[in-house]
Automatic annotation (TrEMBL):
Superkingdom of the source species: Bacteria
Polar residues bias (residue ranges): 1-15
Name by which UniProt lists this protein: Antitoxin
Organism: Acidithiobacillus thiooxidans
Secretion signal span: none
Length: 84
């Protein structure tokens, strides 16, 4: 992984180069000598955040119908509550 650092001015002048560099690692963009932003590929961003899906999103995934899932039935017996 290569880390690239560009000033805000360099980034504005060489945005295409910065995007290419982001494929090899993060690109730090400085403002007055201090890191202000980070440019990274979308794949790196997804890997970094790895947000959990909720059940509705998981069920809406393409190809979900191809997954076989047949959980066993569970018998739940009721018992009277003991308040003694």
């Amino acid at each position: 992984m290569t880390i690239t650092t560009l000033t805000s001015r360099e980034f504005n002048q060489r945005a295409s180069e910065a995007k290419r560099a982001a494929n090899n690692g993060p690109v730090f963009i400085t403002d007055r000598g201090r890191p202000a932003h980070v440019l990274m590929s979308f794949e790196d961003y997804q890997r970094l955040t790895q947000q959990r899906r909720n059940i509705a999103d998981a069920l809406a995934m393409p190809g979900i119908a191809d997954i076989e899932f047949d959980p066993p039935r569970v018998a739940i017996e009721r018992r009277p509550a003991d308040f003694s």
